[in-house]
Amino acid sequence: MTLDVSYAWTNPQLPWLADCVSRHHHLINQRLTHGDLKRWNQALADIPHNAGQPIFDREAVGLAAYPEPHLAALKTALRGLMPWRKGPFQFGSLVIDAEWRSDWKWNRIAPFLTLEGQRVLDVGSGSGYHLWRIYGAGAREVLGIEPSMLFNCQFAAVRALLGDHPVASLPLTLDAFDPGQLRFDTVLSMGVLYHRKDPIGHLEQLQGLLEPGGTLVLETLVIPGDTQTVLVPGARYARMNNVWFLPSVDHLIRWLERLGFEAIQHRGTTTTSTDEQRQTDWMQFESFVHALDPEDSESTIEGLPRPRRAFITARRPQTP
Q1: Helix or strand run (H / E) with residue 136
Q2: What's the CATH number for 5-315?
Q3: For 220, left (φ over 0), alpha (ψ -120 to 50), or beta?
Q4: pTM attached to this predicted model
Q5: Are residues 116 and 92 in contact, defined by beta-carbon separation less than 8 angstroms?
Q6: What is the pLDDT of residues 113-171, one digit of tens each?
């Protein structure tokens, strides 16, 4: 088999996946016209296939060992899929040190998750790092939706190396995702809400994807304040031009209450650090340090509050 990006959304271990792909056939075909896809598919085709013992429960997802004679070819192929934003991954002695230490986020949320036997959806799943950690935590079936074709290629590469498991990624936005009758026991939205022009609509979409009694895992940027506090940045926030609403934790909880979520719990707030998100050899563009005011590390380059991320869980009611 010649590996290409379609390997991300082809998985016989997920009996409902083929029907789901079929419903989105025209959207997926549009994404297959991406100008860089030929180059990325060549990188995938160059990956030496040699699946070994997968590791899902350590900071670096990957393989405990990888044949040394093939490591150089593997490194060349995987570097053809740069930049790697979410990780880390490791295959034998080869480590993909991604921009984000996604394991740190996982370590913050994992103690509050019960995933054994569940069907789980991760919205904005990136390279799929958290998909594998979710599977390793006992989930029965795991799906990510991620519009970036590069990130879907990265997921396909990792999946080819780890072997067949009921884990998949679809190249879709949440707005374009048609689940049909498919519902999930847990839905994660991490690092997505602040990119949405209609954040309450986003939360409502997530609620609709949950089984009754299902759990929402929400992680997003927040600012200090009370129930009336929400920041709408100007043209940019931390150099990002697609940030729309930054609520306080109390204001965010108010949104969830208004939508009818139950058992809403604020699990913690973390200030983003330059150790958690940084430039690496696998992501050589500017990173988080360049988004901060060099004279005041508590402010962004635009003079706004430094990014802080809150983690909240909530439950869809059993009955309407």
Answers
A1: helix 129-136
A2: 3.40.50.150
A3: beta
A4: 0.97
A5: no
A6: 999 999 999 999 999 999 999 999 999 999 999 999 999 999 999 999 999 999 999 99
Q: Is 191 exposed, middle or buried (0-12, 13-18, 19+ CB in 10 A)?
A: middle
* 29 closest CA partner among 153, 171, 167: 171
Q: Tell me whether residue 108 is exposed, middle or buried, using C-beta atoms within 10 angstroms of its C-beta: 0 to 12, 13 to 18, 19 or more.
A: middle
Question: What residues contact 244, with CB distance under 8 A and at least 6 apart?
Answer: 194, 195, 196, 197, 199, 232, 233
Q: How many residues does the chain have?
A: 320
Phi-psi sector, 253: left (phi>0), alpha (psi -120 to 50), beta: alpha
Give me the residue spans of the domains in the chain: 5-315
Cα separation of 256 and 123, whole Å? 18
**Nearest one of 306, 213, 316 to 256, comparing CA atoms:** 316
